[in-house]
Amino acid sequence: MKFMKLMVITFVIVVMSSPILIKSAVAQSCIPTELMPCLPAMTTGGQPTKDCCDKLIEQKECLCGYINNPLYSTFVSSPVARKVLEVCNIPYPSC
């Protein structure tokens, strides 16, 4: 449980302190903090919530930007995160 808290705190600090915005044609809709409902599923391998899947669908076009950004890539590229995308019926993008 301490590990999970540490992961959440680390993720929030990285996201909130990052001056770098995701560079994308749809940058206005690429808001990493909106994926917070997915953090437990992406870090522990739990079942993603409906809210998580809805947020991932909303930001589907942003996934390549997240994958290519070193601040977010570990959260989106991990095998657990790929499983979350699969459960939410979102194909893993080929960037």
From TrEMBL:
<feature type="domain" description="Bifunctional inhibitor/plant lipid transfer protein/seed storage helical">
    <location>
        <begin position="30"/>
        <end position="95"/>
    </location>
</feature>
<protein>
    <submittedName>
        <fullName>Bifunctional inhibitor/plant lipid transfer protein/seed storage helical domain</fullName>
    </submittedName>
</protein>
<keyword id="KW-0732">Signal</keyword>
<dbReference type="GO" id="GO:0008289">
    <property type="term" value="F:lipid binding"/>
</dbReference>
<dbReference type="Pfam" id="PF00234">
    <property type="entry name" value="Tryp_alpha_amyl"/>
</dbReference>
<feature type="signal peptide">
    <location>
        <begin position="1"/>
        <end position="27"/>
    </location>
</feature>
<dbReference type="InterPro" id="IPR016140">
    <property type="entry name" value="Bifunc_inhib/LTP/seed_store"/>
</dbReference>
<keyword id="KW-0813">Transport</keyword>
<dbReference type="InterPro" id="IPR033872">
    <property type="entry name" value="nsLTP2"/>
</dbReference>
<dbReference type="GO" id="GO:0006869">
    <property type="term" value="P:lipid transport"/>
</dbReference>
<keyword id="KW-0446">Lipid-binding</keyword>
